[in-house]
Amino acid sequence: MSVDAPRGLWNRGFLSLLLTQFFEAASDNIIKGVITFAVAVGAPWESVFGEGGNGIVGLLFTLPFIVFSAFGGRIADRSSKSRMTIVLKTVSLAVCALCAIEFARGSAYGTILALIAFATVSAFFGPVKYGMIAELVGPDSLARANGIINMATNVAVIVGTLVAGLVARHWKESFVEGEPTGGGAWLPGGAMAVFVVLGFLTCLTLPRLRAQKPDLPVDLNPFSTYVSTLREMSRTRLLEVCAAWTFFYFVAAVVLLILPDYSSYLSVKDDETALLMAGLGIAIGLGCVAAAYLDTPARRARFIPLGAAGLAASFLLLGLAPPSFNFTLASLVLTGLVAGFYIIPLQSMLQSLAPDEMRGRVLGTANGVSFVMGAVGSGLFFALRQLGMPSNRVFLVLAGLCVAVAAIVTVRLRRMGEADSPARSPSNPPN
């Protein structure tokens, strides 16, 4: 697996990955959060994309993940994942500088370009980080490692979202005659730089990992890897697990687009809306850790439909709730707690079922599909808003979809626990 092959949970490599992922997630959410607040109702860039413009931002953010995730997974299989991480974090430093300049200039399109560049780096890092978990810890620690990584990621999302809310508020207040001025103009770039630099420093402590399949041919067509990998996944339960796993990201994309409009719906400021997102993120993290420590193969067939049904119930509450900050926060906390019981068993199954020599491609493909689902979610949100549906009522649509998914996974994935064993390596793995 690696030069020194650490297998316990709390080894140096896992801690390095944990911190690197934390800073990566925080910086991504700062830039995406500030832009989302910048195009929301009543914000300086609302006119750039029109009503529901945060749906367009979400869609643009997903495109690099759709195009490059499987390609990044191929590179992750044929290269050292630790070396790839250092290269990607170095590129992030340059992208951060571009982003800081464009925010300070008040250029909506320049900042969107920087967002796409950040997303491209993250698209390559996705299969690297999730594939690396199975190389850094033993099989018995895999579910707990996933829970801890997800908890850290959600804490990072909280931190990034809170910072984004505060930064967006001061950045918007710095606008004079349509242009940001003074120190507020540089706040978004400065906040991102802190986390990007810290992520670069922590990745330098990763142990050297060897390439899992160094003879894998390079295929410059980013979509051919999707086709070959999905074909191999269809021969096992991997494709079924992938479909259930990616539905979560469809739901998450819609929720994260709904919440910025709650500043107007609840008549609160952006930093208070960021607290709603923070409450959701904390709850998801706690739910992930709880699910990880309670997770066993025999329980997964119960956890997954239970999580989907719980999401349906909480979305129903949100869709019917009055404009109350406290009630909304409580409902979002419930949403986050049940989400962990849906996502963690599925994520562990993806990693454990994937053969070692193609784990990067499997996870890259799953990651890409998850962002396709995120793009579908962004498109759905934009379409519903264009049709005049209030943002809070979109939760009712999500509730109905979660009911359907809970029914499907109950029928189709009732034997999931029996499938949680390493998949037989395909006789002809995709090239």
Molecular structure report:
The longest helix has 32 residues, at 142-173. With 431 residues, the chain is mainly alpha-helical. The chain has helices spanning 12-39, 46-49, 53-78, 81-105, 108-136, 142-173, 187-203, 224-233, 238-258, 262-265, 270-294, 297-320, 325-353, 359-386, 394-412, 416-419, and strands at 175-176, 179-180. Helix content is 75%, strand content 1%.
Shape call: globular
Instruction: Give me the number of helical elements.
Output: 16
Number of strands: 2
Strand numbers in spatial order across the main sheet: 1-2
Tell me the strand percentage band. Answer: under 5%
Radius of gyration: 21 Å
Helical residues, percent: over 70%
* Alpha-carbon distance between the two ends: 21 Å
Q: What is the average of the pLDDT values?
A: 82
Sheet with most strands: 2 strands, antiparallel
